[in-house]
Specification:
With 163 residues, the protein is mainly α. It has one domain (42-163): E3 ubiquitin-protein ligase SopA (Pectate Lyase C-like), CATH 2.160.20.80. 17% of the residues lie in helices and 6% in strands. The protein has a 3-stranded parallel beta sheet, with no helix packed on it. The longest helix is centred in the N-terminal third of the chain and has 15 residues, at 2-16.
Length: 163
């Protein structure tokens, strides 16, 4: 009897738990350039989209494809962009404060005048990326990432080479 009660309790807790799957509605919202703060955009296909002034703060963009996006003045503070594909993206004046970009592939990405304060760049590939105008970027953050000879950094900053 106790075993049946335990099983029923476990099933009930699963039924009342919040969904962790991506939201097709949220992805459509972002694709049309509208804000979606705190949205679950896990593995979203957002390549080639444009957005200006969107608020995606705190959103889960883990493993999403943002290759070749053009985002201007987009708030990505506290967003989870870990393992995301940011190939060739243009992030002009975006806010990445305390965002998680660990293991992101940001090859050839432009971060013009973006706020990088407190962003987690652990194991991010920044080969060919342009961070020369990025604000709030520290040497400590760059030491955890990697780049190549074409990575552009603020004056006086360096980055380890990718292996």
């Amino acid at each position: 009897m106790l075993k049946q009660i335990a099983v029923l309790a476990a099933v009930a807790s699963l039924l009342t738990a919040p969904a962790l799957a991506q939201s097709a509605g949220s992805i459509s919202t972002v694709k049309t350039g509208k804000s979606c703060s705190g949205c679950n955009l896990f593995q979203a296909e957002l390549a080639y989209t444009d957005g200006t002034g969107m608020n995606l703060s705190g959103s889960r963009l883990r493993q999403s494809n943002l290759s070749l996006v053009t985002y201007n003045n987009v708030n990505l503070s506290g967003a989870n962009l870990s393992v995301a594909n940011l190939f060739g993206a243009r992030f002009n004046r975006c806010n990445f404060a305390k965002a998680n970009l660990s293991n992101a592939a940001a090859v050839g990405t432009y971060f013009g005048s973006s706020n990088m304060a407190g962003a987690n760049l652990s194991s991010a590939n920044l080969s060919g990326a342009n961070l020369s105008l990025a604000r709030g970027l520290t040497q400590s953050q760059l030491n955890r990432a990697c780049g190549d000879h074409s990575t552009r950094l603020p004056t006086g900053k360096t980055i380890p080479r990718c292996r």
